[in-house]
Amino acid sequence: MAFELPALPYAMNALEPHISQETLEYHYGKHHNTYVVKLNGLVEGTELAEKSLEEIVQTSTGGVFNNAAQVWNHTFYWNCLAPNAGGEPTGEVADAIVKAFGSFADFKAKFTESAINNFGSSWTWLVKMEDGSLEIVNTSNAGCPIAEEGLKMTPLLTVDLWEHAYYIDYRNLRPSYMDAFWALVNWDFVAKNLAA
User: Fold this and answer.
1) CB atoms near residue 50 (< 10 Å)
2) Which residues contact 194 (CB under 8 A, 6 or more apart)?
3) Which of 95, 165, 177, 191 is least surrounded by Cβ atoms within 10 Å, i.e. has the fewest?
4) Residue 11 DSSP code
5) CA within 13 Å, CB half, 150
6) Residue 28 contacts by C-beta under 8 Å, 6 or more apart in sequence?
């Protein structure tokens, strides 16, 4: 059973002016798609071909892990964004953030600082720990919270910090990209993840 590139949850130009159609054409249409194609090539004819994407992410290493995790991470990231979104969360998400970080403003500042200073090709995540508390976690390369051995974390929100996520629109200015990210955060998706 071959993996497929999941459809974007919005049109290619829907995130403008914050993230351009050109960025999505490259980031989704080329980079994300290449991870899917490479993963299929790596698992074809092996016992992994019958496993779910999550199972592969949680049990593989090397090139298989890198491509599987990048497929999972990118699919999750696209759902973290939405047109006409952003602002502040409400309800349980807002309550959980205030409980963990003191205020939404403090959370946003801490998440932004963590992302801006996350070295190299990387991801910054808001996760729910097994005890229900929220934490900000950085991963490098294809690192993914669902693959962290011994830690049960539920990803709630992520920002892609690989240069291909922002270089067309913002060049090397990660802080400007983070401003764009906050204007697009899909708090409804975060709420679904929190309730899961």
Assistant:
1) 9
2) 92, 93, 96, 128, 154, 156
3) 95
4) -
5) 0
6) 5, 8, 12, 74, 78
Do the beta carbons of residue 161 and residue 174 sit within 8 Å? yes
Average pLDDT, consecutive stretches of 10 residues, N- to C-terminus, the chain (196 residues)? 94 98 98 98 96 96 98 98 98 98 98 98 97 97 91 95 98 98 98 96
β-strands 122-129, 153-160 pairing: antiparallel
**Six-digit token string for 10:** 């919005």
Q: Is 32 annotated as a binding residue?
A: no
CA 119 to chain CA centroid, Å, is 16
Q: In what order do the strands lie in the sheet with 122-129?
A: 134-140, 122-129, 153-160
